């Protein structure tokens, strides 16, 4: 496509050619061919000049002479601006056409497709990494900690430890903890029995117990005789041997005494766990512990510790490829598969854009008017002439050529009639 300046030169040359042809053919107008050429170039010159005047009159005064009804664009600048604004607002960018186009545009799908396509771009990864770190570092832990602490206390306070006690009692039997506890107790008893001081302790305790027994007659005489024969060491040794035998018996699997002790332990444990007083007591202990616990400080310290550890783990940015991107991709796939949600999102976008358009549609024309008003007449004329001047210059060329052809026809007709 020819450039505007080249087309303007071609239009000027068309006038030069017509004028030169007219001048060159004047001496030969006495002959038929000369007369035909004079008439043709004359008509072409008149047509080219007329079109040059018409084209020039649109933008400026021809030859600088203020001829009436010339320089039409500068003189009618306000009308032209209003017409341009009206065309943009009511024809090119009217609200109905924009709304109709927006309604057919699947904005949600386009956004998701773009995100999916660009997700693994290095720039997007850096943006995700920066955003995640800033969000985590900027969390208002001082405001979050009281909420978390209050919820923990509320949940813990409403939690009944009674069923846990009952379950723990049954679990102790099912997992053999009662037998292990008994074996541990027997081991401690055995270690205590073999100590030298244990004999004297048992003997002294036994002698005191026997001495306190009051009997009558022969039985008292026999008791006194027994006490005269027995001392603390002898009695302690007897009791030590007896207790040691019982301990060894209970350590043996299949022992009747061991079975009785375990059965008693299990029964008492379950009974204690199901005791209303025991359950109320442990729940009261729990509530007292909660009241005295500075939960906010503990939660804040723990949240701060977790945040610092998370930021340290995120330092190298590997988590973006390992965790963040797969999670985002799953979310995007789930969103895309939810047709009802996508329809709702599109409707929301269309409604939002339409509302925004209705509120700001007049600003489109205002923007056009402001941009036009910023230009002086020379700049505005130059811009328009640059955009449409090429076609207007072709009018001049066509006028000269058409005049030349019509001149040939009219001159030939005149010659034929003569």
From TrEMBL:
Domain of life: Bacteria
Pfam families on file: DUF445 (PF04286)
InterPro entries with a match to the protein in the record: DUF445
Protein's UniProt name: Uncharacterized membrane-anchored protein YjiN (DUF445 family)
Higher taxonomy: Bacteria, Bacillati, Bacillota, Bacilli, Bacillales
């Amino acid at each position: 496509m020819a450039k505007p300046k080249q087309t303007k030169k071609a239009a000027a040359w068309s006038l030069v050619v017509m004028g030169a042809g007219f001048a060159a053919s004047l001496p030969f107008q006495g002959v038929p061919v000369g007369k035909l050429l004079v008439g043709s170039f004359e008509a072409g010159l008149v047509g080219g000049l007329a079109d040059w005047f018409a084209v020039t009159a649109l933008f400026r005064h021809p030859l600088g002479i203020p001829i009436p009804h010339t320089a039409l664009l500068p003189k009618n600048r306000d009308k032209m601006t209003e017409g341009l604004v009206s065309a943009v607002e009511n024809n090119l960018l009217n609200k109905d056409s924009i709304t109709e186009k927006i309604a057919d545009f699947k904005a949600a799908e386009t956004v998701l497709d773009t995100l999916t396509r660009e997700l693994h771009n290095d720039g997007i990864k850096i943006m995700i990494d920066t955003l995640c770190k800033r969000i985590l570092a900027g969390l208002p832990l001082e405001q979050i900690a009281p909420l978390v602490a209050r919820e923990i206390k509320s949940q813990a306070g409403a939690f009944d430890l009674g069923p846990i006690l009952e379950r723990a009692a049954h679990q102790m039997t099912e997992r053999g903890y009662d037998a292990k506890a008994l074996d541990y107790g027997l081991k401690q008893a055995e270690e205590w029995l073999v100590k030298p001081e244990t004999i004297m302790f048992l003997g002294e305790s036994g002698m005191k117990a026997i001495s306190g027994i009051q009997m009558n007659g022969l039985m008292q005489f026999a008791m006194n005789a027994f006490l005269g024969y027995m001392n603390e060491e002898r009695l302690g040794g007897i009791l030590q041997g007896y207790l040691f035998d019982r301990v060894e018996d209970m350590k043996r699997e299949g022992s009747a005494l061991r079975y009785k002790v375990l059965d008693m332990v299990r029964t008492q444990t379950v009974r204690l766990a199901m005791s209303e007083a025991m359950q109320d007591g442990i729940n009261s202990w729990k509530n007292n512990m909660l009241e005295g616990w500075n939960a906010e400080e503990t939660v804040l310290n723990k949240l701060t510790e977790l945040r610092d550890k998370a930021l340290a783990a995120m330092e190298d940015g590997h988590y973006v490829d390992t965790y963040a991107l797969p999670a985002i991709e799953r979310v995007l796939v789930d969103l895309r598969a939810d047709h009802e949600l996508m329809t709702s999102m599109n409707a929301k976008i269309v409604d939002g854009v339409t509302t925004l358009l209705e509120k700001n549609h007049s600003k489109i024309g205002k923007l056009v008017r402001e941009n036009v008003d910023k230009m002086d007449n020379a700049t505005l004329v130059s811009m328009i002439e640059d955009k449409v001047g090429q076609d207007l210059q072709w009018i001049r060329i066509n006028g000269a050529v058409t005049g030349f052809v019509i001149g040939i026809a009219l001159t030939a007709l005149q010659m034929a009639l003569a």
